[in-house]
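Worked example 3 (structure in, sequence out).
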């Protein structure tokens, strides 16, 4: 499989010049050379397959051989992820990206120990891009600003499949397929300390389905990945 790099835009030219961090990684780490083929993507769905035609110390030129666009999903997969410590958060973003989350929204839940910092949005986006390159994912997940519980209720309570994963749920994930509509699927993942009773009641009263992922209790950083994999298998996407 060809290496993948992200660029700000893919214009309608016969060639593209790649510079900046992506060029540094390609030239210094992967040691690409003239004649090598690779993939470029804009992170929004457009991609090209091309061949390196020229290079210098800080950039390289790609002749375009093929263009394409990733088909948009009819049903968006959204993960609302409770904030965690930085090392766990990085692991979670990596896993959510490779598992196919279309949108990742940080959530300052009642039991979240970590607090949102101004630079975290950029860090999450960088982590997602790195994971996408590794997994050859052409479309990057959208990383949103932090959300509150009230905003979850107002935004997703009536117009989405709101799934709350909880260790004490009575219905398993394999039992909800016939209850899913064609609207977006929103997965709510709590912090290491779990959801509070108030959060659970509020989310459930807004139409959320409380779902059991399995017998074992997963870490917050791993639960979203397991939920996405289970759902995409259930829906026939995988």
């Amino acid at each position: 499989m060809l290496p993948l790099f992200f660029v700000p835009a893919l214009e309608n030219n016969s060639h593209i010049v790649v510079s900046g961090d992506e060029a540094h990684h390609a030239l210094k780490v992967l040691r690409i050379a003239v004649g090598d083929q690779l993939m470029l993507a804009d992170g929004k769905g457009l991609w090209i397959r091309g061949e390196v035609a020229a290079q210098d110390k800080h950039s390289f030129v790609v002749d375009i051989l093929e263009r394409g666009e990733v088909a948009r999903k009819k049903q968006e997969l959204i993960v609302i992820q409770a904030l965690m410590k930085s090392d766990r958060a990085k692991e979670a973003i990596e896993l959510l990206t490779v598992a196919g989350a279309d949108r990742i929204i940080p959530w300052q839940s009642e039991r979240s120990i970590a607090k949102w910092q101004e630079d975290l949005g950029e860090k999450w986006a960088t982590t997602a891009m790195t994971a996408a390159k590794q997994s050859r994912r052409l479309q990057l997940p959208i990383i949103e600003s932090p959300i509150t519980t009230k905003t979850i209720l107002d935004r997703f309570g009536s117009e989405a499949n709101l799934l709350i994963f909880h260790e004490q749920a009575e219905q398993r994930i394999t039992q909800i397929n016939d209850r899913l509509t064609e609207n977006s699927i929103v997965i709510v993942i709590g912090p290491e300390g779990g959801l509070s009773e108030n959060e659970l009641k509020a989310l459930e009263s807004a139409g959320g389905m409380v779902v059991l992922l399995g017998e074992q209790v997963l870490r917050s950083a791993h639960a979203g990945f397991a939920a996405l994999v289970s759902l995409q298998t259930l829906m026939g996407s995988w």
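Notes: Residues 13 and 133 are 23 Å apart (CA to CA). The first helix runs from residue 20 to 29.
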